[in-house]
Amino acid sequence: MFHALFNETKKEIEKVYLPGTMADIKTHHSKLYDEVLLTERRLDHLWQTMRKGRNTLTQFKKTLKEWKELHLKAVELYKG
Fold it and tell me: Angle of helix 30-51 relative to helix 21-28, nearest 10 degrees?
């Protein structure tokens, strides 16, 4: 379930992602870049917690949505 949700979201991001976005964001919008990395770490933590038997699906979905929104914001900043 977690893997499928992650892959679905990743594909949605890939539809609009432009090569060079994250490098540009790291240089020009470091706070946003840090937020993306922090959100990725939270996703990984939730995934690992789920693998230990805890139900983190609701929080995983919420964090996955945040991760997607951060990437979409990064793409918009890069395009603009």
Answer: 120
Q: Phi and psi at residue 29, in whole multiples of 5°?
A: -140, 65
Measured CA distances, 25 to 30, 52, 62 (Å): 6, 34, 23
> 36 and 70 in contact (C-beta within 8 Å)?
yes
Summary mean pLDDT of the chain? 95
CA-to-CA separations, 63 to 5, 19, 20, in angstroms, rounded: 11, 24, 24
Q: Which distant-in-sequence residues (6+ apart) come within 8 Å of 9 by Cβ?
A: 64, 65, 67, 68
pTM: 0.91
Q: Which two tokens stand for residue 71?
A: 């990437």
Distance in angstroms between the alpha carbons of the first and the last residue of the chain: 35
Tokens of 70: 């951060």
Residues, the chain: 80
